[in-house]
Amino acid sequence: MKLKASLLTALTIAFVPLSFAAAADQSASRESYLKNEISDENAFMPAPSLREEKYTAMEESPFAFYRATNPLYYQDLSKGVIPVPSNWKTAPNIQTFLQGDAHAENLGFFDNNNGEVVFDLNDFDESYKGPFYWDLIRFSSSIFLMADEAKNLSLSAQDKENLVSSFLDTYQSTIESVNGNSSEDSIQLDEGYLKSGFVQDELRHAKSSDSLAKLLSKWTVVSNGMRTFNWSNSNLAPADSVKSAITASWPSYIQSLGSFGQSMPSGYFQIKDAAKRLHSGLGSLGTDKYYVLIEGKTDSQDDDVLLQVKEQRLPSMFKEGSLSSSQYQDWFPAHAERSRTAAKALGIKTDNHLGTISFSGKSFRVERISPYKEGISADDFNSRSDMEDFVKYSATAFALAHARSDKDYNAAYVPYNYEQGFLDAVAALPKVKTTILTLSENYAAQVKADYQMYLDLRNNGEL
């Protein structure tokens, strides 16, 4: 097999020189490993057409491949492909709730429970408790990959390293600023907090251009005085066979909302229509997702509420091998309860519609779809300062979320002050940030090599 040039770079993560023959053997072994891992992780999909849709989307770029292969990241942590120093694994008080699939497109804009538009973490399907560096290495790797795809920029290798260093420095300084004072529970990255720059501009654009009316018009129509889903939208399909199961289980969803569910008018949660959501996401493509339209506060067609009902599964973090399955099961009898808890722990002013439901033998997280839900892609950056601003506020968002999720949220899960644990680890473990920079840069190179192997597998019909 011909060894690709990009692979030679990726193989340096072993930190030992390899002969050409040894490198070729390692390449063949890695390609076989990728084939098996990707096949196994997507075997749950009931329809081959779904796998083909996901596999085709993964061909788009190394970053798309990375977004779709979160389980591979944790397998690589387990197998030492990402060689985390052994003394990091025994450092005390460094675990908190993590996003779990930390990458640059899993932050964005949405409105919180008070209707304020904020910039923050926005995906909790993979969230669970783990050591801070799992999120930081994965997100830092995504900076390298996203920077490669920013077509309006021309960033040098040093520029990319500087972005990651800035991310890690800002993360630490934010942790230092909230240590011991619980201000993380009141700080949110809204228009007032953000300084002039790219993220503030994008937030203002979301506020000015988006609305509930626009969201409803995208997905629904009003016919004969009743709002229903718009079946001409190619991203929706009727959910007639599932609607009855959702309706039968709906009281349990309302109950999961606690006082909010009981305080709303009797018709607030009345189901008006349900649809299956198609072609949604990348890493989660293939899991069941439904949209449910409910009545809202009045019988007007203009204040209806759109909810997402999304299947939840065991977090990919368990691929790393060190987490306790029994502890997980004791805490969370259903996967949706785990992701709901993590979203509340990591978030601030979390929307009251966040709840859980189970039907058809599966567990689902339910949440309101924000009219202001927007993300940021590599094409949005028009200058290096744009990306620098994005990286700075992403670091702030991660630091605040990690800090909120310790004993300040619930000591049953994290019985200590995470901020102090992180700072103690940085002081005790040599070159933590430098090591994360090196690990993430090398892993980004590994991802690019894996992507080329993946294209080979696809071209050869093996996936």
- Give the beta-strand count: 13
What would you call the quaternary organization?
A: single chain
Number of helices: 16
Strand order of the largest sheet: 7-8-9-10-12-11
Straight-line N-to-C gap: 18 Å
Order of helices and strands: HHHHHEEEEHHHHEEEHHEEEHHEEEHHH
- Rounded to an integer in angstroms, the radius of gyration calculated over CA atoms is 22 Å
Strand content: 5-15%
Low-confidence parts: 1-18
Task: Describe what this molecule looks like in 3D.
With 463 residues, the protein is an alpha+beta fold. It has three domains: 107 residues, no CATH class; 169 residues, no CATH class; 158 residues, no CATH class. It has 16 helices and 13 strands. The strands form four sheets. Strands 7-8-9-10-12-11 form a six-stranded antiparallel β-sheet. A three-stranded antiparallel β-sheet has the order 3-2-13. Helix 6 packs across helix 16, helix 7 packs parallel to helix 14 and helix 7 crosses helix 15. The radius of gyration is 22 Å and the shape is globular. The protein starts with a helix and ends with a helix.
Short characterization:
The chain has 463 residues and is an alpha+beta fold. It has helices at residues 5-10, 20-41, 48-58, 62-67, 70-79, 132-148, 157-178, 198-209, 212-219, 240-256, 259-263, 325-331, 335-346, 384-404, 418-428, 432-459; strands at residues 95-98, 107-111, 117-121, 128-131, 220-223, 226-229, 236-238, 271-277, 289-294, 305-311, 355-359, 362-368, 374-375.
